[in-house]
């Protein structure tokens, strides 16, 4: 019996050990599988707050899952500078190598996409794609060297049309000299480096040039071409980009890219890492409902409208407790607006001016100030709306701003006009209603007696004798006693109840 117990214990220990070993093998295999993942992100639209949030969350997920690399499949016309810089910061700080792959054929990495390509650990393109046009668009205006439409005097025009017939030979000579001078000027302008015409343009341009050159030098890419793409807006195709060391790979598809990446060394913050993409599993991380929702509400106009709906919904609910609908709609709109604003570069001075303007315009309806609050509110509201965003590329539609301000202002003026008209209307309820009413004496009296006013019998006092049936006018009300005065019959005829 004892021997049988010992065998049972030994058998239990043996099976437990085998189960532990098997579990260890499974965990190790699972760990190997996680390390052999490539997380695939896809961006095929303009770069904005929603795109930035999506890419940053993807990079963070890759770090948590210990993926081998992140592949960002990119096709973009550009986007916001602030969102692009947030994405590049996340790439540079990533614990997992980020591969930016311009795909599909016919796609592009223009403007902000160029910076993202230069800021990734590996840059790759599909044939028939292009990269460039990285000049900051908010600069506007022209640069020195651009054709301003003034081509100068044409050959043969010496500047004096009246003397053209008599001085034709001299004109031809002058025209040849001017043409030669113009050609020399154009050649000189072509050799000049564009630096912007105004101080602000120069600041923005030089900042962009320094930024992209820093990214290029970090990953040993062509910094000179990157500067040309910013200053001149140059574009190149995939093959030329590979030849000029703008990208490391040109691949027909994702499978081809992963094969070329195998064994490639990338520069990480802690040192070099050799990529192992043999039999790697590609895991898609597509934009979810959060990204799609954020893409809609982070439109400056949509976020602006949601904020106004939210504010007015709360105001209407507080002024009419129990209405429910304005409060519910306003609260939901306000939460969505705040969700959008927290991922956008908001100027809080502009937001404060908008709120202050709305408070002033609403206060005008309840505390008439003869237009001072309303006008001040409109000025504050419009100014705050214009300066609401810190990013120059984010702008609210001016017709929307002025239209909203006009509607709110007209509403405030209408309410003010109604209040002013109501001040001239006699009261229709309360004690004040009795003043001026015409009644009839129900008995003769000299000082005190009964009168019939407002379909009721009242005790009235009079300073003059009153006869039964005589019309009287109410001049005061003290408690439940009226003060009246006799009214001649001709004065009382027009109205039997009020004067």
What is the CATH superfamily label of the largest domain? 2-enoyl-CoA Hydratase, Chain A, domain 1
Characterize the largest beta sheet: strand count, sense, and whether it forms a barrel. Answer: 6 strands, parallel
In the residues, how many domains can be counted? 5
Q: Count the DSSP helices.
A: 16
Distance separating the two termini: 121 Å
Strand content: 15-25%
Query: What is the arithmetic mean of pLDDT?
Result: 78
Strand order of the largest sheet: 8-5-3-2-1-11
Name of the level-1 CATH class of the largest domain: Alpha Beta
- Say what the CATH topology of the largest domain is: 2-enoyl-CoA Hydratase, Chain A, domain 1
Poorly predicted parts? 139-175, 180-191, 493-499
Number of strands: 16
* Share in helix: 40-55%
CATH architecture of the largest domain: Alpha-Beta Complex
Please name the defining characteristics of this protein.
single chain, about 500 residues, alpha/beta, 2-enoyl-CoA Hydratase, Chain A, domain 1, 5 domains, six-stranded parallel beta sheet, five-stranded mixed barrel, elongated, disordered C terminus
Can you describe this structure?
The protein is an alpha/beta fold and 499 residues long. The chain folds into five domains: 1-28; 36-140 and 200-288, Alpha-Beta Complex (2-enoyl-CoA Hydratase, Chain A, domain 1); 145-191; 290-423, no CATH class; 431-492, OB fold (Dihydrolipoamide Acetyltransferase, E2P) (Beta Barrel). 50% of the residues lie in helices and 15% in strands. It is built from 16 helices and 16 strands. The chain has helices spanning 2-35, 49-64, 81-93, 112-119, 168-191, 199-218, 223-231, 238-243, 254-261, 289-297, 300-319, 325-341, 348-366, 372-386, 398-423, 489-492, and strands at residues 37-43, 69-74, 98-102, 108-110, 122-125, 130-132, 235-237, 249-250, 265-268, 271-274, 281-284, 438-441, 448-453, 456-462, 471-478, 481-486. The strands form four sheets. A six-stranded parallel beta sheet has the order 8-5-3-2-1-11, sandwiched between helices. A five-stranded mixed barrel has the order 12-13-14-16-15. A three-stranded mixed beta sheet has the order 4-6-7. Helix 2 packs parallel to helix 3, helix 3 packs parallel to helix 4 (112-119) and helix 13 (348-366) runs antiparallel to helix 14 (372-386). The protein is elongated. The chain starts with a helix and ends in a 7-residue tail after the last helix. Residues 139-175, 180-191 and 493-499 have low confidence and may be disordered.
């Amino acid at each position: 019996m004892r021997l049988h117990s010992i065998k049972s214990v030994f058998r239990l220990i043996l099976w437990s050990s085998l189960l532990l070993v098997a579990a260890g093998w499974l965990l190790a295999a699972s760990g190997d599988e996680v390390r052999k993942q490539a997380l695939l992100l896809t961006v095929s639209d303009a770069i904005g707050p929603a795109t930035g949030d999506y890419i940053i969350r993807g990079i963070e997920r890759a770090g948590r899952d210990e993926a081998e690399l992140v592949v960002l499949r990119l096709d973009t016309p550009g986007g916001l500078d602030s969102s692009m810089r947030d994405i590049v910061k996340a790439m540079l700080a990533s614990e997992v190598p980020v591969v930016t792959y311009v795909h599909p054929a016919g796609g592009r990495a223009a403007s902000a996409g160029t910076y993202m390509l230069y800021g990734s650990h590996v840059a790759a393109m599909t044939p028939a794609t292009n990269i460039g046009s990285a000049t900051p668009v908010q600069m506007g205006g022209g640069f020195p060297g651009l054709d301003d439409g003034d081509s100068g005097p044409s050959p043969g025009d010496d500047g004096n049309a009246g003397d053209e017939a008599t001085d034709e030979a001299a004109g031809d000579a002058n025209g040849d000299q001017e043409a030669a001078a113009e050609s020399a000027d154009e050649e000189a302008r072509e050799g000049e480096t564009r630096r912007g015409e105004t101080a602000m343009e120069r600041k923005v341009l030089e900042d962009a040039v320094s930024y992209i050159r820093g990214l290029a030098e970090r990953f040993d890419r062509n910094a000179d071409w990157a500067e040309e793409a910013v200053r001149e807006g140059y574009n190149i195709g995939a093959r030329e980009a590979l030849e000029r060391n703008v990208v490391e790979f040109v691949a027909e598809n994702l499978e081809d890219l992963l094969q070329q990446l195998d064994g490639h060394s990338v520069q990480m913050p802690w040192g070099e890492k050799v990529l192992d993409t043999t039999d790697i599993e590609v895991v898609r991380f597509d934009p979810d409902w959060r990204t799609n929702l954020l893409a809609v509400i982070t439109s400056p106009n949509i976020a602006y409208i949601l904020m106004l709906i939210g504010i007015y919904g709360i105001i209407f609910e507080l002024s009419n407790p129990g209405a429910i609908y304005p409060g519910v709609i306003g609260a939901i709109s306000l939460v969505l607006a705040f969700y959008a604003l927290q991922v956008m570069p908001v100027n809080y001075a502009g937001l404060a001016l908008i709120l202050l303007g709305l408070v002033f315009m609403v206060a005008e309806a309840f505390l008439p100030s003869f237009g001072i609050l309303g006008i001040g509110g409109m000025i504050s509201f419009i100014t705050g709306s214009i300066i609401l965003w810190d990013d120059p590329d984010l702008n609210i539609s001016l017709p929307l701003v002025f239209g909203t301000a006009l509607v709110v202002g007209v509403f405030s003026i209408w309410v003010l006009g109604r209040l002013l008209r109501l001040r001239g209307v006699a009261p229709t309820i309360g004690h004040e209603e009795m003043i001026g009413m015409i009644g009839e004496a129900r008995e003769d009296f000299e000082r005190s007696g009964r009168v019939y006013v407002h379909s009721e019998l009242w005790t009235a006092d009079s300073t003059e004798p009153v006869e039964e049936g005589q019309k009287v006018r109410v001049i005061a009300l003290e408690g439940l006693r009226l003060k009246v005065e006799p009214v001649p019959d001709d004065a009382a005829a027009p109205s039997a109840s009020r004067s």
